[in-house]
Sequence to fold (145 residues):
Amino acid sequence: MTSYETHVGGNASVGEMARAVRRAVFIEEQGVDEADEMDEKDEVATHVVITDDGEPVATARFRLVEATTVRIERVAVLDAYRGEGLGAEVMDIAESRARERGATSAFLHGQLRVAAFYERLGYETDGEQFEEAGIPHVEMVKSLD
Fold:
């Protein structure tokens, strides 16, 4: 039986778990440069991590960039855990915690190949396609009201 546990915070241990998932997904799987992926925003972001028997398997981070606007970033789920709803779960937790801090809107830069995932969560594309770390992205927005 799978036993998932959720961790939320800005402390070093939650950040380390988040970076482990991001390293596997973005750096090793997708070929993103480590300098682009592991940035200084980790220190000011709140991380959401889901673990399976103590091992980190899914993550997202969020930051209030304005008083009522949250930016959700670095959403990642290990390959073996995709399709189990963990991406939606980390998004829901990030949005809920951001609402608690006064956010009424959210935005993210979603990889084009997974834009439909964010659309299912209520996000809408805002603008044209662009590249980030050599990967096609779109900005997406959602009201949190």
User: Anything to note?
Assistant: The first strand starts at residue 4 and ends at 9. The chain has four helices and eight strands. The mean pLDDT is 96.
